[in-house]
Amino acid sequence: MRVDELIANRRRPLFSVELWPPRSAASEERLKGALDELSHYALDFASITYGAGGSTREFTHELVVHLHRNFGLVPVAHLVTAAHSRADLEHILARYAAEGIENVLALRGDPPLDSAAELAAGDLKYAIDLARLASGSYGMCVGVAAHPEGHPEATSFETDMDFLAAKLEVADFAISQFFYTADQFFRLRDALDKRGVAKPLIPGIMAPTSLSTLRRMAELSGTTIPDGTVARLSRYEGDPAGFIAEGTQIAIELASQVLEAGAVGIHVYTMNQAKTTIAIYEALYGNSWTGVAST
Ligand code: FAD
């Protein structure tokens, strides 16, 4: 099933998740447990991250194919241009196509959070080039990344929005980076509306798990964390359970605001944590979805 079809045919706002491929036996067990718990919920698709650096590339392929073959969950395979030759990318896309994988998230790629090393440029420079390849040569449904405050390397917000609008002429949908005020998402949506972009934009929602991780991720992605959010979370430093409960509540509030404003769904950055994801799902959908119908 293609994500653009899922969006077009939705009977309620979509609920999708991002998963990381496991890197060790222990993380594989954790992911299995999370998938078991999540299997009780009506997830619309799962996107699987891709380590541009190399060591975990094959794990992404394995998890994507596993979800597709054995789990009945629509996978979206992340793929990056950085550090790849065109032939590498063609090989990866051809393998996915042969497995019947229909959805790819076309990205440029970033080094891992714990690495200071730069990524080498690939043969294809920008995500739009990969979107063209995946869509044009492999007929895939292609998603791309959108950055609510503009990509940190962009010369300005407006320039980045111009590039994003161009990307969405090729791609079928976008998923936003996480954000911590709904206004950041609305500004992104307004910028695309102003440019006449009608492709779906799915807001990315992430419940913070610790202040240090949140700060590091926010710095790398150029996301502003409002003082009010930091103040709410700071009360629970030294109380991990309290912190996660408050972080989950913040995520639920953001998700409710964007859904009430007509977002097509939400994409939860799960960090492979089922409990937080389920808490968000149940708060929004309960047993029967009674929220505002999306447009
Ligand atoms: P691009 O769209 O290529 O943009 C990169 C920069 O180039 C921007 O500053 C843009 O303004 C500029 N630009 C674009 N087109 C042009 C042009 N024609 N001329 C000049 N400048 C241009 N990273 C990973 O490594 N693995 C993952 O699995 C992963 N998953 C992600 C999922 C989501 C939903 C998001 C939002 C991000 C993800 N990332 C991932 C991070 C992503 O790779 C980084 O944000 C990266 O720095 C930019 O990727 P992009 O696809 O937006 O790049």
Mean pLDDT metric: 94
Number of helices: 11
> How much helix, percentage-wise, in residues?
40-55%
Structural class: alpha/beta
Uncertain ranges: 288-295
* Order of neighbouring strands in the sheet with most strands: 1-2-3-4-5-6-7-8
How many domains would you count in the coordinates? 1
β content, as a range? Answer: 5-15%
CATH level-1 class: Alpha Beta
Outline the biggest β-sheet. Answer: 8 strands, parallel, barrel
Radius of gyration: 18 Å
Describe the structure.
The chain is globular, with a radius of gyration of 18 Å. It has 295 residues and is an alpha/beta fold. α5 links the parallel β4 and β5 (141-146). The protein has an eight-stranded parallel beta barrel, surrounded by five helices. Helices cover 47% and strands 14% of the residues. The protein has one domain (3-285): TIM Barrel, CATH 3.20.20.220. It is built from eleven helices and eight strands. Mean pLDDT is 94; it is low at 288-295. Flavin-adenine dinucleotide binds next to β3, β4, α5, α6 and β6.
